[in-house]
Design goal:
Helix content is 70%, strand content 0%. The chain is mainly alpha-helical. It folds into two domains: 65 residues, no CATH class; 94 residues, no CATH class. Helix 2 crosses helix 5, helix 3 crosses helix 4 and helix 5 crosses helix 9. The longest helix is centred in the middle third of the chain and has 23 residues. The protein is elongated, with a radius of gyration of 22 Å.
Length: 171
């Protein structure tokens, strides 16, 4: 611990300068990145260390996510799976309500949604027949949930079971 003398700045001055610098510095906190990437981090952790994942994300993808943050997430998979699920839940609810199929029955299937239509005519006809919120829900679920390998999604199932049961009780 540094002892204050008459020539050194006070801790208040140091703190104020730090805060001022933080406002001028490049924003580096990537809140939510660990949540958005958690399923992929979880899957990769079966073959890679947290440090190797952190290095890959920084060198190959330009995301700084410390190995400590990754380890914390991996040590609390129930928390992070549920945080991730909160992002997709509204979209899964839209699909569940429109199709009258419980989430637990479609979220863990290998491939649930058909591939996007190739023909513009078929796409236009489908858009006229399907509600915009359902189209959006399918897009988000395909992008955020079904892009995760089925093996990883199945490993998430025990962490989400209670969450899914609570949702089922509401309907």
């Amino acid at each position: 611990m540094k002892v204050e003398n008459n020539n050194s700045p006070s801790l208040i001055d140091v703190g104020q300068k730090l805060l001022a610098h933080s406002k001028d510095a490049e924003f580096t906190a990537k809140r939510g990145v660990v949540i958005d990437l958690f399923p992929f981090i979880y899957g990769a952790s079966r073959r890679m260390s947290a440090r190797a994942i952190s290095r890959f994300l920084e060198k190959e993808q330009g995301y700084t996510l410390s190995s400590v943050t990754i380890t914390k997430a991996l040590n609390a998979p129930d928390k992070y799976w549920n945080l991730f699920f909160e992002h997709i839940k509204p979209h899964a609810r839209v699909w569940e309500k429109d199709e009258k199929i419980p989430m637990k029955d479609f979220l863990f299937r290998e491939k649930y949604f058909p591939e996007p239509f190739e023909s513009r005519v078929i796409q236009a006809a489908a858009k006229m027949m399907v509600k915009p919120e359902v189209i959006q829900a399918v897009r988000v679920l395909r992008e955020k949930w079904f892009s995760i390998g089925q093996g990883t999604r199945l490993k998430a199932k025990p962490y989400l079971e209670e969450h899914l049961m609570e949702l089922a009780d509401k309907f």
